[in-house]
Design goal:
The protein is globular. It has six helices and seven strands. The protein has one domain (about 5-230): Rossmann fold (3-Layer(aba) Sandwich). It is α/β, with parallel strands linked by helices. The protein has a seven-stranded mixed beta sheet with strand order 1-2-7-6-5-3-4. β5 and β6 (about 185-195) form a beta hairpin.
């Protein structure tokens, strides 16, 4: 999670983080919050005990992680990058369920060896908590886990990102499960692990923002928590 103490607006950062906590708790989950200020011992204990890993939205990843120099529009949080990369490595080793949201999707992609478009036009919205949001279409790929959860065909999603993933930038072991149209070519809107036995899903939109999200997206949170409970009971 983003550390509110390091955010430009601490109150807004807490409100944004709370939306994720609420989504987890709605489906019976317990939240353990880690941010860049969390001590090493506390991090290690939490990662050893976790039954699922949520990588949430926030600032840009450092482009150095995928071999590029930062553009002027790129805003990074190196401490958060380091924490989330280590958390993902533990999740990979332990094969716990992983759910990536917006920045979290981009983080999974980069940690799996992929890269990003550092700046893309047409997918931003007024800053949270503005009472309106932009939206675009999501084309769900048939036969994917995402299609099983949400149903096949098209949906409408909110859009809060200025960075993106093109199909040719997708990391290793990831299957594209959703696209969004863009004048410069389709962008990856969702992906999942190619291993059907591994619950790893990520979406570019913000399903925790229920006021701007179709009700069926609540099933993504339910599926994540179901997978975490199944992992815990193994």
């Amino acid at each position: 999670m983003q550390s509110p103490e390091h955010a430009a607006n601490e109150e807004v950062a807490w409100r944004k983080n709370d939306r994720y906590f609420e989504a987890i708790r709605r489906h019976g989950g317990d939240v353990i919050v880690l941010d860049e200020d969390t001590g090493l011992d506390e991090r290690a204990a939490a990662l050893a005990a976790m039954d699922g890993l949520l990588l949430s939205g926030g600032a840009d990843l450092d482009p150095a992680l995928y071999g590029e120099e930062a553009l002027p529009t790129t805003v990074v949080e190196p401490g958060r990058d380091a924490l989330e990369q280590s958390a993902f490595e533990v999740a990979e080793e332990r094969r716990v369920p992983v759910f990536g949201v917006c920045r979290g999707m981009q983080a999974v992609n980069v940690f799996r060896g992929g890269s990003l478009v550092q700046d893309i036009e047409g997918h931003t919205s007024p800053a949270y908590p503005a009472p309106e949001a932009s939206s675009h279409d999501l084309e769900i790929e048939a036969g994917t886990r995402l299609a099983t959860v949400l149903g096949e065909g098209a949906a409408t999603v909110n859009t809060y990102h200025h960075q993106a993933i093109r199909p040719e930038q997708v990391g290793q072991g990831l299957r594209i499960s959703g696209y969004s149209p863009h004048p410069d070519g389709d962008l990856v809107e969702a992906f999942e692990d190619t291993d059907p036995g591994r619950w790893l899903m990520a979406v570019q939109s913000h399903p925790e923002r229920t006021e701007f999200t179709s009700p069926e997206f609540e099933r993504l949170w339910a599926s994540f928590l179901d997978a975490a409970r199944a992992y815990s009971s193994r």
